[in-house]
Amino acid sequence: MVKTWSKNTFWQLFVGSCASIGPFALGFDDGWSAPATPSIRKDVTLNATDDQIDWIVSGIPIGCTIGGFIGFISTNLLGRRGTMLFISPVYVLSHLLAALSNNFWWIFIGRILAGIVDIVVCMAAQIYTSEIASPELRGIIASLPAVFGVAGILCTYILGTFMDWRTMTLVELVIPVSYLSMLFHVESPVWLLQKGKIDIARKAIKSLRGSHADINEELNRIKENNEKNQNKGDFSMRDVLRPQFYKPMILSLFMMFFQMFSGYGPIIYNSVEILQSGDTTVQENFASITMAVLMLAVVICSSLFVDNAGRKILLIISGIMLSLSLVTLGIYFYMKETSDRNLLSHLGWIPFASLLLYYASYSSGYFSVPYILLSEMSPARYRDIMCSIGYFASNLFIFVGVRSFPHLKYYLGSYGAFWLFMSNMIVANFFVLFFIPETKGLSLEQVEALFTNEEAKVDSNTSQEEGIGNTAFEAEKDSHQSAII
What is the per-residue pLDDT across 114-144, written as a single tens digit (0 to 9) for each? Predict the structure, then answer.
């Protein structure tokens, strides 16, 4: 948590919150599947088969996978703020298609379109929040998309208790109206300077830092970094072999793999059915809402501590607790399949308790930190394409996880699937411990320098305020470069 909460601090938080409406929409669509799936099964006007329902549920991750590359183009050409404003009409179309049709294919196409819009806006929001924030606030502000994403999941779970899936889909149409709030905020100064709009960028930084702030040092630092990247020419395949590209890209892809194969997709999309199959003694919809409330509380707390505690410690704690929740869930389902049911008559609370621990653990680190690291570790020159690849991989992994979960349960049993996810988290913890650099308190230029042999300027007004100076930066750089990547 930052030491002082000035008027400028709250203004940056407010701007970041407005930009995080897109992640709220993605959270809404991610959470939609849990209450919507039982409702779709009861919809006699649709009469969908189990396989069709599985494809409808998979529509969002399919769309998100496609949208990753669209996001790369739009955030570069239209800007981060411009992308959020431009694509909102497609969001309206996607939800009208899904809510008003009785044809499986139109509903499926509507969900894919919604996924495309969700991820494009989320990419823009994640890049935007990391670029508008001052270094000492970047961890908190870059966590806002995750906070709003969980709020979207919670909203869906609440609405799902008294709405059918069609009504719930139509309610989402109020979200694009909120995008219009970005009309009153500035574009990312980093993008503006990349496009040579120096005067507008100066005004944007002034707006974000306050009228009395000395912005010359920050403006010059961003300009120098942009000029250095522009002197290297346009992106080409040879850039893939540059350490400042392939090192953070490989690290980010591994983090996306570990994040999504922690079981996030299968569990968040099927939480109601997992509770039902576990014969839980807790009412399913109440349990889902409780889990989402806990998830929201934890992700808010982790966002407040990410700048003090650091990224790595949150990931490691999150990974350990995720492993505990998954092994417990696996043991329960193993006993359910192999033991006398009378032995489990008083243990129906275990699936609910295990999922509570899972939601809290995931929210404390793996829900937001991999995306923070992706935006932080990506050099300004490659940030658009690297975030595009990262989001593409993330949603491809979600799609594979969601579609493969029924097959994993068939071949391994439910307990085997949960234990497989647990094994993934054990490996993830060792990977984070030995290979992920700590980025707290560093400017984006300093983070970029971790992957090169170049030096980065230390902003004395930010880094030293947080106790991060040249010594700490050099120590982190030396320890990271000694790791085998």
Answer: 999 988 988 888 888 888 888 777 778 878 8
